[in-house]
Design a protein that fits this description.
Number of strands: 5
Distance between the termini: 30 Å
Mean pLDDT: 78
Helix content: over 70%
Structural class: mainly alpha
Shape: globular
Low-confidence stretches: 249-262
Oligomer: single chain
Largest sheet: 3 strands, antiparallel
Strand order of the largest sheet: 4-1-5
Number of helices: 16
Amino acid sequence: MINLTFREAIVVRFKALFQVRELRKRVLFTLGCFLVARVGVHIPVPGINMELFNGFAQGNVFAQFLNLFSGGAVQRASIFSLGISPYINASIVFQILGVLYPRIEEMQREGGKEAEKITQWTRYLTIITTIFQSAGIAIWLQSSNYVLDPGPRFIITTVVLITGGTAFLMWLSERISIKGLGNGTSMLIFLNIVANLPQVLTGTISQLKNSGRDLTLAYASIILFLVIIIVMVVVQLGERRIPIVYVGKSSRGVGETTQSVVGRKTYLPVKINTAGVMPIIFASMILAVPAAVIPVVKDPAMRSYLNNIFGQKGWAYLLLSVILIILFSFFYTAIVFDPDKIADNLKQSGGSIPLKRAGKETSDFLEYVATRITFGTAVFLAILGILPNIWFGYVLNIPVMLGGTSLLILVGVAVELIQNIDSHLSTQKYKGFNNVRRRGR
């Protein structure tokens, strides 16, 4: 699709969604899961005074943050209020444990039954943390007088419903990863952010009108976000091509005699953004912690100060965003990109990097390239991640309606979704090619 225009490429992919049977089934399955997830957002936990609770949800920073990533579930006091966040946090815990304990890292890399054990442990940890979180929410709702009929029955009901809602979303995300399109966790967060976009757009327009600002700033905002989206797409699709030379190999085409490809050159593509969108999601989950802890501070002056510096335009929030995006980019790249394994595969297949010996020297070179690429990309993504916050908070001087991390997640997941569609199209073409070969024989 490289030679196609942008419009033609979009048309080709759109037609493929309906013409390719396997792809059509995956799309319909994903849309069905989306429908179920959105229906669940509108199912409230019983026994809450919604008039009082809505006033809190609209004025609390942490509630607004969770509301964005839960697709409006928090403001509705839904059974999906915690969303997929506990599952993401549990995944972060086991990936950090993989760094601290080599045995867990080996299990993650081996795949198969060993990786399935890690997945099962992640599910257990998700349920345990959700029980504690939902119990804390229920107790807090009672102490804040948001409950119509407080008591043990309300606490037990709330814990069961919210824990069940999170467990269901966890199961749904895994089904999307297996039978649908893309990574299920990313797709559910993408859905929730998209569901809130109309509210974000109307809120931004309303804030600009009320502030009496010139419409030039509104147009500049649109241009800025378009530029960020374009740059993000370029970064997501960019790759570094490392030349590879294969020696002593031979190949045979359809109906052709054996041809020598001694000295034939190809390349190893290394994505510029190897870690994808997951580091941004992980960073956003950790950034929610200060907003959750600050309301507990009893001193009003200290609480106000912490709210200012950890708000979405506060210096501590912006600095922490940069640091976390950079750290998680390196961390996740180290998990998904294994230079030792790639070097071994090249050695076994007779391939080598020019001027590099097979084995450790090749592995060290690949690690060096990946480190340099990741550093540049991570810093770049971190800057893009805080730019919308600075624009809303300091240039437009209005509340941050759409944070940089949310925008990066939207663009990143959208690009990964397109790549996933292209991958299915390539697989379909390969199957068709093999069928032609069999009929030719």
